[in-house]
């Protein structure tokens, strides 16, 4: 019967995912005893295996691309999905970068002695089992595997169904790296089915096996994960980023930063989507900055005050303030000082990355205090929102939640900690 | 109509709680601009107001105690609820302790400069709005209010319905302290109704106003919060704590630590509930330690191997391994080495606090590496699991979740962070 076989398939998937959870938990426990040397050896072997398997990875990716074209996927999305030899080499080099960064596990971040002689150390430890749910870009499979392993975590990876073949081919290389270092294969697992029910099972926590869920993708994916997850979530929401030009801004810096923040690469999460201009000096600042943006090929959509200063600017609707364009379009609002800018950002932003351009240091610092985003920049482009630019080596993405980790999530952010208290027989009076 | 008025009441409570959420969010924003001096002034004024209001607080508490007696509440629970002049003074002194600890907000925990001149600082910031759901002990109202304010957070406090009058009287003193420092009253709000539907509304996140929910109480409360919460949770679960006697243990230390961990105070979350003894030397260790525990008035319940070594020990059931007795009872199991101890702890423990007694340092360190609890002690009593004993000044409780904060939660653990990046006009190439 139709419903019978669906139930059977559901039960089978559920059993399969439960097995993955148990295997991941056992692998995480094994990783607690593996040392940094073994993890580094595995990462180097992974990079070598990705290079050695390049043709197999490209062949699998070609099948994904062909299938995506057949469904009529947009060219920009196809470009995100497609690999070539350069991209495979970049993937291997990325894993090597992670192999070279300092191992965060076991690092003492604090240590002090109490008057009774107890020696208290705060020590970084792996989180345990991390499930990552992501879309497009097959290189995330290699990046996420490498960062989770560097931090001593077992990973369950669930990429987009449109790049399943690519992800499985990359995972085969990852598995070779683990084997070369004598680590359990279940340290890094990829969900082998395109069945979307697998996502629901992961969000259910796989019978308590999942310690952290990281969604990396569009607004609807992250919202679903945050609503349904039965395990802690580290959300990577879109970057609804603002550049605020304070009345004290230097015009040359304002032009350079606004154009770079919007136009350097419009498709990255660190790109600016809204330009805010201080009403106290908008006449001086907005027209030339708008001209520079237009010269760079950017469309401007403004509120009434912005349009009164820049002829021919189209009208911004309420929806524009909450739209991550990922395109050469920017919304523009004139706001009343730092408070006005901070209020706009609090109302419409995603707490990702926001910048102020100001020569008055007190104004800049006040903006940095008032704006509650993961990254606040003073006189610099929002496009610096990137783990590599922060010196973290690599990143899973930019966390936009408020707890545990914010901003670029590298290996260190994929650890937690415990207290190790060393005594000589102390009892509490 | 009955159902009509219930719906009306539900709608009214929902509106009232929504107002609380909005007021808390506005207060949290005001707190971002208040400096440490104002917060310290408010905390000192709170302590003074608690002392000045002592008679009103005691009168309200007497009403709670009377009502609790009328419902037949157990004497041990009445004792947790009841205040006297000493306890009110301790509450005021506790708030003064928090006023004296270093203010965590704005502290730079890391700062570095990139090759391009960008100056990146990681700065502690308030979390925002914290909702704390707790049971019994009215002093938590003062402690939680003080710690949240020290860390620059707005708080929504929901104590047990059995101490509502006490909590409201304490809150009146807290409000006087806020007013004395010119801070908004909504920085610290107490839910004014005993209606349990209020908890459900808080778990729903109050329309996105709540940034963190902290449940502090029994297993069923914490489980409900973790299942239903639509905002991040920092769980404070029971302490199912173990003391493991390794084959290398010094017998005198083993006796002293086991007796202290179990019997110093049996009702605290840091009390030990299970004694694990290494099979490699159980004959030497278990009988005298069991005798010392019995001499201290403790009942022992053992597995087969433990009972074979200690005549007259009653049989431990599967349920005993997962029971937080909070009473002079301890379960006892003989396990095979560190791996056996770690496996028992991973299966039955609550990742709170576990101790090893061992003279062999390599064995002790291996235990510390394998056991994934918030606090792992070597040759010291589990009863040191306490914010004061760690030097944190005060604590909300001991966090047993894996993310954001583990172990004692003081003011520092009630902060998050952001990156402030200072440039001189940098754009990304």
Would you write up a description of this structure?
- 2 copies of one chain form a homodimer.
- Chain A is α/β, with parallel strands linked by helices.
- The first copy, chain A, has 2 domains: 12-236 and 406-421, Aldehyde Dehydrogenase, Chain A, domain 1 (3-Layer(aba) Sandwich), CATH 3.40.605; 241-390, Aldehyde Dehydrogenase, Chain A, domain 2, CATH 3.40.309.10.
- The first copy, chain A, is 45% helix and 20% strand.
- Chain A is built from 15 helices and 16 strands.
- The first copy, chain A, has helices spanning 2-33, 36-52, 54-70, 75-81, 85-100, 139-150, 164-180, 197-203, 219-228, 251-263, 282-295, 304-309, 337-348, 361-370, 387-390; strands at residues 108-113, 119-126, 129-134, 154-158, 188-190, 212-216, 241-245, 272-278, 299-302, 314-315, 329-335, 353-357, 375-380, 398-399, 407-408, 415-426.
- In chain A, the strands form 4 sheets. Chain A has a 7-stranded parallel sheet with strand order 10-9-11-8-7-12-13, with helices on both faces.
- In chain A, helix 14 (361-370) links the parallel strand 12 and strand 13 (375-380).
- In chain A, helix 2 crosses helix 7 and helix 6 (139-150) packs parallel to helix 7 (164-180).
- Chain A is globular.
- The interface between A and B is large, with 67 and 67 residues.
- Strand 13 of chain A pairs parallel with strand 16 of chain B, so a sheet runs across the interface.
